[in-house]
Design a protein that fits this description.
This protein is mainly beta and 217 residues long. The chain has 2 helices and 16 strands. The protein has one domain: Acetoacetate decarboxylase-like (Beta Barrel). A hairpin with an 8-residue loop joins strand 4 and strand 5. It is globular and about 55 Å long.
Length: 217
Amino acid sequence: MTEWEIHGVTFANCNCDYGCPCQFNARPTRGNCRAVVFSRIERGRFGAVPLDGLKMGFAVTWPGAVHEGGGTMQPFLDETADAAQRDALLRILTGQDTEEMATAFWVYARMCDTIHDPVVTRIEMDVDIKARSASCTAHGIASARGAPILNPVTGVPHQVAIVQANGFEYERTEVGRGWSEATGRVPLHLEDSYGTWFELHMNQSGLIRGQAAVAAG
């Protein structure tokens, strides 16, 4: 198994209501799961292969809850990566060179019956965790944007987060709202549903915990 580590930021949008009941081991809001996920690696390596500054993501659907399987995934990878870096990104994204159940990437990939060949494209990400804002594009395949939930009376941004002491995706995620589109082999359209922003820090053994810093937007 190749040792690796990545540290960066993720924005994701799924079709659940704000807060996403799946985060609490409940059924997804609409009985199924549809999501677009963007991740930017600020610092990272896969063995001797550097991954600093690279981006990756996927569009995915499941007919029921994630743990019930049957999903279909479309990965997309940064066109600025060379061949070795693309292979490394895909291996991380699909849970290879990863201990069993150690990361969300491992779980999501194992719960998919079909993982399509990756699309290599220009990926742009403008993400601010603290402000709960995001604008992400994988040209020709997917886009997502995020914003804070607004108080319906005052219009003030609602500040709320989820903390998971033993999660395999994040320790803390900021909660907001999101909109997404994906085309190609996994088409989907999401509008004003659960958005989530978190610091991405993990290796082949799982999350690297206890990090106080938040990746820069």
